[in-house]
Design brief:
Elements: E1 12-13, E2 16-17, E3 19-20, H1 31-43, H2 54-74, E4 82-85, H3 88-103, E5 109-113, H4 122-131, E6 134-138, H5 148-154, E7 159-165, H6 177-185, E8 191-194, H7 206-209, E9 213-217, E10 228-232, H8 234-239, E11 250-254, E12 257-260, H9 274-290, H10 292-311, E13 316-318, E14 328-335, E15 338-340, H11 342-350, E16 354-355, E17 357-359, H12 364-370, E18 375-379, H13 386-406
Parallel strand pairs: 3-16, 5-6, 5-7, 7-8, 8-9
Antiparallel strand pairs: 1-2, 4-10, 9-10, 11-12, 13-14, 14-15, 14-18, 17-18
Length: 407
């Protein structure tokens, strides 16, 4: 992994070299992606699908080529199963609204898990409130794994969809989505996978998983902000109504009514983020040049190393310790049994040039389950190395010494 491909890693923070460990929130961008964005705006910027002139045709070609690259990346059967969105949150909101309109009635049930990000809770809450349906969640065992026996008992004729995270954005743990999909499909229930924390870090094959929907973001996988993906099996996307109206998503508009465009365009109202899709393509190509297996193995080794180093620190509690994780560790620190507030730790780490995330990480139900106000979260990207971990551990020890002395 070539750190020099990422210009921001040469920056300093408070006079210290930047140690960026907040990749679960957003990743940094390689020069190849930055160059692609400049290229798009500088050489072929034009609205796509609507012009016969050269620039429009070039822009259209790049946008649709990006769709093919995304489809191949996650092993979709066809590019038409790839809907471009603003990100994971937008993708799940689009699915929740569209699926809710077509498939959810009063008294029906939607199942999520107790580990979800708010973006995979709130949209379904809104649908259930609108349709007078019921939102349920898979409970957690004491070790913070999902209780699949309880999940089996939750599935019934009123269950219309299951939507779960592939990887917890708080714990970094990999969820048993294969088993969840299998159990749901036994009862003909579709499954959506929130892949925001898995697609950037491991190989995700939608056909092998047999998931019905998958949502993920470009900005967490070294691509631009404002671009994301909703994958859906064609048989589902064909039957679901569009969630937005406007240009591009129509076939014909008459005062008497409107007919909708073919897939995937009926879900892509308005001018799409064609520069973002091009940047996402370049980010995917960058990841492929490194190798998904190489990225996963590197980040797993870093995660295990960091968790081991944290275990050497007095008063530090790592959540879901020892469980397989994908580039994310959450922990808290205690002084004499009293919780040291995560925000204080994060602030002192920042002053030493170390960027981490503190708080509830948009997963308040899980944080409530942990019984704490928040956690400190460390998360890795392909450009991080053991020197970053060592710098973080040294900064953490200094921060804890300062905070413990104030108690």
């Amino acid at each position: 992994m070539n750190r020099s491909d990422f210009p921001i890693l040469q920056e300093t923070v408070h006079g210290r070299p930047l140690v960026y460990l907040d990749n679960a929130a957003t990743s940094q961008k390689p020069q190849q992606v930055l160059d692609a964005i400049v290229e798009a705006y500088s050489t072929w910027n034009s609205n796509i699908h609507r012009g016969v002139h050269h620039l429009s045709q070039v822009a259209t070609m790049h946008h649709e080529e990006a769709r093919k690259v995304v489809a191949q990346f996650i092993h979709a059967r066809e590019p038409e199963e790839i809907v471009f969105t603003k990100g994971t949150t937008d993708a799940i909101n689009a699915l929740a609204f569209s699926f809710g309109e077509a498939c959810i009635d009063e008294g029906d049930e939607v199942i999520v898990s107790g580990l979800e990000h708010h973006s995979n809770i709130v949209p379904w809450q809104m649908v259930c409130e609108r349709k007078k349906a019921v939102l349920k969640h898979i409970p957690l065992r004491e070790d913070l794994t999902l209780d699949l026996e309880a999940f089996k008992g939750m599935l019934n004729a009123r269950t219309k969809i299951v939507s779960v995270a592939h990887v917890s954005n708080v714990l970094g743990t990999i969820q048993p989505v294969e088993e969840i999909i299998r159990l749901a499909h036994e009862k003909n229930i579709p499954v959506c996978i929130d892949g925001a924390q898995s697609v950037p870090h491991m190989k995700v094959d939608v056909q092998a998983l047999d998931c019905d929907f998958l949502a993920f973001s470009g900005h967490k996988m070294y691509g631009p902000t404002g671009i994301g993906v909703l994958y859906g099996k064609r048989e589902w996307l064909d039957k679901l109504p569009p969630h937005e109206g406007g240009g591009e998503m129509i076939n014909h508009v008459r005062w008497e009514g409107t007919t909708y465009n073919e897939l995937p365009y009926k879900f892509e109202a308005g001018t799409p983020n064609f520069v973002g899709s091009y940047g996402l393509q370049k980010a995917i190509e960058y990841m492929q040049s490194v190798g998904l297996e190489t990225i996963e193995a590197h980040e797993r080794e870093l995660t295990e190393y960091c968790e081991r180093r944290l275990g050497e620190s007095k008063g530090v509690k790592v959540y879901a310790a020892g469980q397989p994780k994908v580039g994310v560790i959450s922990f808290n620190a205690y002084n004499g049994g009293e919780l040291i507030h995560p925000f204080d730790i994060g602030t002192l780490l920042d002053q030493q040039g170390v960027a981490v995330r503190t708080g509830h990480h948009c997963a308040e139900p899980l944080i409530d389950e942990l019984g704490v106000p928040g956690t400190v979260r460390v998360s890795f990207g392909l450009y991080n190395d053991k020197k970053d971990v060592d710098a973080f551990i040294a900064a953490l020890k200094k921060a804890l010494t300062i905070l413990s002395s104030r108690a």
